[in-house]
Every structure is written in structure tokens, then in C-alpha cells.
């Protein structure tokens, strides 16, 4: 599985934007970039995913570098409820491997009021 | 719609005892995962099912762990005998079959082995 690298932790002020980086220099052409987050005492939850183009949904935006070797999850206005561990995951698109979901250590996001 | 349901939420057992965890996935989800999560670490995949078939169980310690998914719906994960190092959160997740589908996780079972 291609590997991702994320900072161990980040801190943000409430109501400000947060940019969570992820490096994936060994990404293959068919790997999708997925983000999940895990709130305290909860199971992980899906945030967003993309392949090449930037993506937006109600939770966040995903900005993908042109060479696809890095990506950034953007929370436009952080709230205290966004404090969580954020995981950047690469998922292969081949059918036999496409459902594999391999987590790294993630980034702990702390939000200050 | 109900999400992924796991039980029990918490379990405390003595070492060498057996323990079982149960998972009811979202209706219609063909893919089911069991993960183990140690404190401060990301979830680690133990086993993945596509319907009734275990398609990826390479990380399952088969000397003491076993899993089954009868009829391709509910699943149980068993440990026998439990060891102190098995204390962790056990997470179940499910998704539709196919590539790049969103996985939905249960709240997990926190196991403490004393």
C-alpha cells in the first residue's frame, strides 16, 4: 500500500480556516485520496475523497496538488466539534483492493476557543 | 437509518478467558471490516469480508482470533484465550461493495483484559 505522511498534531483557533496537509509521494495513478476523521470515543467517519480535481462537500474541501504527491484538507471555519484525529488514506481502485482502507497515525487537530 | 451497531460497548475480562464481539452492519452493505485500535494509534485492519468470504485476513492472529460472517450479514469476532495485550478498541465497519465507497464505522467495543 502506498504510504501517507501527516504532521502529528496541529492547532487552530475557533472560526478560522484549517489546512491539514498530507504527503503521498508514492501515490499511483489510480489511487484515490480519502480523508476520515475520528472524534473522541467514536469510530472514524468519512470526510471527503478525490482523485485529481479539487473537491468540496458540506464538511470540507480537498485540494490536490497537480502532481498528486500531496493534498490538503481544508476546514473553512473550525469549530470546537472539529477537534479530532484526521486520517489521510490512499485507496486503490482495482476491484480486489479497492475496498481496502489502511489507516496511518493521523493528525490530531486541537481547536482553541 | 440505523448505522453500524456493535455490542457490547465495553467488556472487562480476565486473561485466558474467551470473549466475543458482535457487529450488525448497515443493511445492504456487502463489505464488512474488523479493526483493532490501540490507544493513540490509528485503526489496524484485522479482517475484511466481501459477503460471507473473508478476502483479507492476513493481519488476523489466527492462533487466538477467529471471525465469522454467516449469511453475509452479521459478524462476530472472537478471542480465545485473551491476553493482556489484547486490551484495545475493536471497531467494525461496513460499506457497499466496489471501489471508493464510503465506509461507516460503529462506535467500537472497548476491551480491557485484566
Overview of the structural elements:
The complex is a heterodimer of chains A (113) and B (114). In chain A, 0% of the residues lie in helices and 44% in strands. With 113 residues, chain A is mainly β. In chain A, the strands form two sheets. A five-stranded mixed beta sheet of chain A has the order 1-9-8-3-4, with no helix packed on it. In chain A, a hairpin with a 4-residue loop joins strand 5 and strand 6. The model of chain A has no long low-confidence stretch (mean pLDDT 91). Chain B is mainly β and 114 residues long. In chain B, 0% of the residues lie in helices and 48% in strands. In chain B, strand 7 and strand 8 form a beta hairpin. Chain B is globular and about 40 Å long. The N and C termini of chain B lie far apart (37 Å). At the A-B interface, strand 3, strand 4 and strand 8 of A face strand 4, strand 5, strand 9 and strand 10 of B.
List the helices and strands and how they pair.
The complex is a heterodimer of chains A (113) and B (114).
Chain A: E1 9-13, E2 18-23, E3 32-38, E4 45-50, E5 55-56, E6 61-64, E7 70-75, E8 84-91, E9 107-112
Parallel strand pairs in A: 1-9
Antiparallel strand pairs in A: 2-7, 3-4, 3-8, 5-6, 6-7, 8-9
Chain B: E1 5-7, E2 10-13, E3 19-24, E4 31-37, E5 44-50, E6 53-56, E7 65-68, E8 75-79, E9 88-95, E10 104-105, E11 109-113
Parallel strand pairs in B: 2-11
Antiparallel strand pairs in B: 1-3, 3-8, 4-5, 4-9, 5-6, 7-8, 9-10, 9-11
Key words describing this protein structure:
heterodimer; A: 113 residues; mainly beta; five-stranded mixed beta sheet; four-stranded antiparallel beta sheet; 9 strands; 0% helix; globular; B: 114 residues; seven-stranded mixed beta sheet; 11 strands
What is the percentage of strand-forming residues of chain A? 35-45%
Q: In which range does the helix fraction of chain B lie?
A: under 10%
Total helical elements of chain A? 0
Order of helices and strands of chain B: EEEEEEEEEEE
Quickly give the structural class of chain B.
mainly beta
Distance between the termini of chain B: 37 Å
Secondary structure tally: strands of chain A: 9
Number of helices of chain B: 0
Give the strand content of chain B: over 45%
Largest sheet, strands/sense/barrel of chain A: 5 strands, mixed
Radius of gyration of chain B: 13 Å
Which overall shape of chain B is indicated by the principal axes computed on the Cα atoms?
Answer: globular
Biggest pleated sheet of chain B:
7 strands, mixed
Q: Looking at the structure, what is the overall shape of chain A?
A: globular
Mean pLDDT of chain B: 94
Q: Tally of extended strands of chain B?
A: 11
| C-alpha Rg of chain A (nearest Å) | 14 Å
Order of helices and strands of chain A: EEEEEEEEE
The parts of chain B where pLDDT drops under 50 for at least 5 residues are none
Alpha-carbon distance between the two ends of chain A: 38 Å
